[in-house]
User: What shape does this take?
Amino acid sequence: INKNMIECRYKTIIENAVSSVIGKETFLNVVVNIEQDIKKNTEHIIPDKKNNRHNINEKYTFANFVVGASNEFASAAAIRAAENPGKVYNSLFIYGNSGLGKTHLLHAIGLETKRRFPEKTVLYISAEQFFQQFVESTKNNTRNDFLQFYQMMIDVLIIDDIQFFANKTGTQEV
Assistant: This one.
């Protein structure tokens, strides 16, 4: 159950019932603790700020990334994005053939961002996982919760294998 469902299906019924009991017109204001509700439904992917736990592979750092002619620009852009998240290269898309270090760079961005800005919530997720969550939110009529989770609770969103979204119009709207 989400706020939208309560307002659409039950608000008028509740207002009328309360009004008849107390004898005067009553208006219902639905307030939902979005953060708590979202955490309950997405606990498996939310990084734990208190214990500094996250789903980023700590082996993939900028220090051990092998820079070559094919990935030099992507490496420099990734470092700049991690140094100033949301300001430089917002959004950053890294495209290339398999084996050139795209996933390594994405994890390195997450690690460096967490090192520089420990207060930020950084989420690394595969495009497939993101798409599955989107589909579930659409099926369960919780799309607003899905959007609010990604817009309000995540400071730096890192999606790997973004090419998975090609020809999936619903996720392109998000």
User: Anything to note?
Assistant: The two ends are 22 Å apart (CA to CA). Residues 102-116 form the longest helix (15 residues). The beta strands are 122-126, 156-160. The helical segments are 3-9, 11-22, 34-42, 72-83, 102-116, 127-139, 143-153, 169-173.
